[in-house]
Amino acid sequence: MDSHAQARRDLAAALRWAARLGLNEGTCNHFSLQVDEDRFLVNPWGPHWREMKASDLLLIDSKGTILEGDWPIEETALHIHTRIHIRHPHAAAVFHTHMPYATALCSVEGGRIEPCVQTALRFYNRVAYDEDYNGLADGPEEGDRMAARMEGKPVLFLANHGVIVTGPTVAEAFDELYYLERAAQAQVLAMSTGRPLKLVPGQIAERTARSMEQGRPPYAAVHFSALVRMLAREEPEFAG
To answer: What is the DSSP string of 126-175?
Structure first.
């Protein structure tokens, strides 16, 4: 399988699994992957993530020209994703969702991923926060603003909006997305008790985060490979 075909297959699998896990919102939200210089795959506006196939994905350039694909591109996807890819070339995969628990933390004053559960420690000092909701991303200026707020960090919390997660591969970005939502879920549930969060001390959090960072790529690859295997058995049409 050539690299572009593999990229399409991986991105379609990530979209289907995100829908299975309830990380999407309707036919909104978007995943993208840079495959060449000024060439990006992105999910089109139209198909639901649960029915996405590799052949449905659009190949676009940074101006939004559709080079391959039969569906339209959603405007905010163009403005958010192309600007982040341009400003952060290490972020080959860029995933934007309104997944419920992480978005809940984006919707409270001073919402942060706190070091209150082991899963959250992988994000220690790796999340940027955009505190200023500025309306829909209906122009490249808003995409540039979001990209600047990332400050070189792989995760961005958008106040009153949702999250952006990036990674060097689809597998790593998906793994980050999955565990970010699990960390947010645990925190929201803990906060709902009305008891104060029990925070891990900074020195221990830093040490644990470093260990997690070292092991993250192989664990992400194993995790995503398992997801693709299950999808290939249960919904093999995703690769078509």
So the answer is: -EEEE----S---SHHHHHHHHHHTTT-SEEEETTTEEEEEESSHHHHHH
Range of the domain at 12: 3-239
Tell me how far CA of residue 140 lies from CA of 63, 91, 136, 146, in angstroms: 10, 18, 11, 10
User: What would the mean pLDDT of 44-66 be, rounded to a whole number?
Assistant: 96
Q: Does the pLDDT at position 206 exceed 90?
A: yes
Residues 131-186 pLDDT 10s: 999 999 989 999 999 999 998 899 999 999 999 999 999 999 999 999 999 999 99
- Residue 224: its H or E element: helix 202-234
Contact 183, 120 (CB under 8 A): yes
Residue 79 sits in a domain whose CATH number is 3.40.225.10
Helices (H) and strands (E) in the chain, counts: 7, 8
Are the CB atoms for 86 and 94 separated by under 8 Å? no
Q: Tell me, what DSSP letter sits at residue 53?
A: -
- For 112, residues 6+ apart whose C-beta sits below 8 A from its C-beta are 105, 127, 129, 157
DSSP 8-state assignment for residue 239? G
**Phi, psi dihedral angles at 131 (to 5 degrees):** -85, -5
**What's the distance, Cα to Cα, between the start and end of the chain in Å?**
13
Q: How many domains in the chain?
A: 1
Average pLDDT for 73-80:
95
Find the helix or strand (DSSP H, E) in which 5 lies: helix 3-20
In this prediction, residues 203-215 reach a mean pLDDT of 93
Q: Could you tell me the pTM of the whole model?
A: 0.96
**92: nearest Cα among 14, 21, 17:** 14
